[in-house]
Write a structure and sequence with these properties.
Layout lengths: L2 E11 L12 E12 L2 E7 L9 E12 L1 E7 L13 H13 L5 H17 L2 E7 L4 H14 L4 E3 L1 E2 L12 H15 L6 E6 L7 H13 L4 E6 L3 H10 L6 H7 L7 E5 L5 H10 L2 E4 L1 H6 L7 H7 L2 E4 L11 H14 L6 H15 L17 E4 L5 H7 L5 H11 L5 E6 L2 E2 L8
Parallel strand pairs: 1-4, 5-6, 6-7, 7-9, 8-9, 9-10, 10-11, 11-12, 12-13
Antiparallel strand pairs: 1-2, 2-3, 4-14, 14-15, 15-16
Helix pairs in contact: 2-3, 3-4, 4-5, 11-14, 12-14, 13-14
Guanine binds next to helix 1.
């Protein structure tokens, strides 16, 4: 069995850092060695104390080796429509998004965009993402087939939507049930792929389709569930017009049994007290999508309030409402959103969120999001000197916390030196770079 050792500055989290001085919350090795066999971490420790006999050594000094980034909410089918000029969510969906997603009825298109999407993830250091495909089953096949080719742990599913959208995107309650079930059975657990049952949001699903989603969730407890919740005022009002019997927007999903610890809810910006309590009680995850929330003018995520309620949270790009594939850019914008809320996010807490925190939101913290024995060898290697501006600023940086903050504030894909997926180099082996 061949062993590879990555040498460099290693950073991995044990738990949520409570402040910039909470050194017990993470492992940091100035000259570390990460030993990999069969795509998994087998040992982590100081390089000098590591058994190196027969191992291939890859030296990444002076760069930082972290667990690969995890993106909890992204629409791979919107990869080609980022930066679409729209006033707010519903206009953006109707004017651009629903037009763009219709292209995924073509297998060739889905296959080509999937390749570009995965290339973009890897360039930016993201090794796992939870994605919405389009309503077309072939878009799901393209998504999982490409994940399997790259040996990536990816989660995704067919969007279920049977109203308030163009005919070319609409399924029916029955066909969405049948197609989702078939796709789940085809792809869940194949390679590292995992399925997410994906009713788009209340506006585009009839009660009959919500019932279909409810049946799928009840029949497939191993699968994730993803949808959108409380992103925009007009969206909330329209949802309540469509579901007048529910207590509030969260109540719609609650009434159809869609909330649980494997449920990921994009946005969750304008929740009332009851809704926050329901999320806490069910264990559903509120996913913060800062670049999207700023771009679409949706509002400011109230992280502290949700955490005080006991709600589990995570962070994501929400491409193509989001404006960058980069989790570094996402952390930066997240920091600014929270500043506007009067909430500080320390740099360790940021990097925890994008790695182990998001893994915990998925219940996958034993598998991804940490550099620890038994975890997948999915890593990102970061360079805080990647651009002239970063080099200039780095000259005055004197702590790891400052370096991380510099990376998140000024970094992007240029700071991503290398990416490993299941122990294999993934960025430097991309074509055409
Ligand atoms: N709500 C329903 N669909 C979408 C989508 O594609 N993007 C965002 N940001 N919100 C949504
Ligand atoms: Zn979304």
């Amino acid at each position: 069995m061949s062993r590879t050792i990555l040498r460099g500055r290693v950073l991995s989290f044990h738990r949520v850092p409570e402040g910039p001085d909470d050194a017990a919350s993470y492992l940091y090795l100035e000259d570390g060695a990460v030993s990999i066999e069969d795509g998994k971490v087998v040992a982590v420790g100081d390089f000098a104390a590591t058994e190196r006999q027969g191992a291939e050594i890859i030296d990444h000094r002076p760069h930082l080796i972290l667990p690969g980034f995890i993106d909890l909410h992204v629409h791979y089918v919107q990869s080609q429509m980022m930066a679409a000029y729209a006033g707010s969510l519903l206009e953006w969906l109707n004017t651009y998004t629903f037009i763009e997603e219709q292209k995924f009825s073509q297998q060739g298109h889905a296959d080509a965009v999937a390749v570009d999407f995965y290339d973009a993830l890897i360039r930016h250091g993201t090794t796992t993402a939870v994605a919405y495909c389009s309503s077309h089953p072939r878009s799901v096949d393209a998504f999982f087939a490409e994940a399997q080719r790259r040996n990536m742990l990816m989660i995704g599913g067919k969007v279920m939507m049977d109203r308030n959208a163009p005919e070319g995107l609409c399924d029916t309650a029955q066909s969405s049930y049948d197609d989702s079930k078939a796709l789940l059975e085809k792809w869940h657990g194949v390679g590292r792929g995992l399925y997410a049952i994906s009713p788009r949001f209340a506006i585009t699903s009839t009660p009959a389709q919500m019932e279909a989603a409810q049946a799928l969730v009840a029949e497939h407890k191993q699968a994730y569930v993803q949808t959108h919740l409380s992103e925009n005022d007009a969206e909330i009002s329209y949802s309540m017009e469509l579901y007048p019997g529910s207590a509030d927007y969260t109540g719609i999903y609650e009434d159809f049994g869609l909330l649980g610890p494997k449920t990921l809810l994009g946005h969750c910006i304008h929740l009332n007290h009851r809704e926050a309590g329901v999320l806490a009680d069910t264990g559903a995850v509120a996913v913060f999508c800062p670049t999207s929330n700023l771009f679409l003018g949706s509002g400011l995520f109230d992280r502290e309030r949700l955490i005080k309620h006991g709600v589990r949270t995570g962070i994501a790009t929400d491409i193509g409402g989001g404006t960058s594939v980069s989790m570094l850019r996402t952390l930066d914008e997240g920091y600014k959103v929270l500043q506007l809320r009067g909430q500080r996010l320390n740099p360790f807490a940021s990097f925890h969120m994008a790695t182990r925190g998001n893994a915990q939101a998925l219940g996958l913290e034993e598998t991804i999001g940490s550099i620890a024995p038994g975890c997948a060898a999915d890593f990102v290697v970061l360079d805080a000197y990647a651009t002239p501006t970063m080099r200039m600023r780095q000259a005055t940086v004197s702590s790891l916390a400052e370096e991380l903050f510099l990376l998140q504030t000024l970094g992007d894909d240029r700071s991503v030196v290398e990416v490993y997926v299941a122990g294999a180099r993934a960025k430097s082996t991309l074509g055409g770079l």
